[in-house]
Amino acid sequence: EFLVEISGTTVTITCPVTEGSIEWGIAGTKVETSGEKYVIENHDSAPANVSCSAGGKTYDMYLNARVCTNCEELDALAVTGIITADLLITFGVLILVYYFSKDRKGRAGASAGGRPRGQKMQRPPPVPNPDYEPIRKGQREVYAGLESRGF
Q1: Which of the residues 40, 108, 144, 148 has the least number of beta carbons within 10 Å of its own beta carbon?
Q2: How far apart are CA 105 and CA 125, in angstroms?
Q3: How many whole angstroms separate alpha carbon 70 and alpha carbon 73?
């Protein structure tokens, strides 16, 4: 198996054959290089067919490596630390929001709408209609002139 290492825009390919003189080829053309490693400087992320041969054995590989100039390499420990710190900060904010909202729930003045809480205000009685005023005990003389008519 080929070993491919990518760092920035440099791609280093190691041939699986270790003994003898190794000849490298890209897209069918021979490349003048010696050794079991072939280094491509400033790779443009274009796919290519790479082959290495030594002692009558030829190994072919399709190289489709994406490279970038501004990439940063992170190890697993750094990624784990970033994720752990993010989770701890998120849970801390959640706990703070929970405790502050829990305290606000009990206050009477913090309700929405601006209406006072507590006892509900009772409506005053409706204004009586003078045509249908009830007969009260000391006011019989007001209605004394009214007599029932016989039909």
Answers
A1: 148
A2: 35
A3: 10
Q: How many domains are contained in the chain?
A: 2
Do 55 and 84 have their domain in common? Answer: no
Domain that holds residue 86: 75-105
Asked if residue 67 lies in contact with residue 6, where contact means CB atoms within 8 angstroms, the answer is yes
Angle at 80 between CA 76 and CA 81, to 5 degrees: 120
Q: Does 125 reside within a domain?
A: no
pTM score of the predicted model: 0.46
Cα(69)–Cα(55) distance, integer angstroms:
37
Q: Is residue 96 a contact partner of residue 89, using CB atoms and an 8 Å limit?
A: no
Residue 97 lies in a domain: yes
| Confidence band for 2, pLDDT divided at 50, 70 and 90 | confident
* Alpha-carbon gap, residue 17 to 56, rounded angstroms: 11
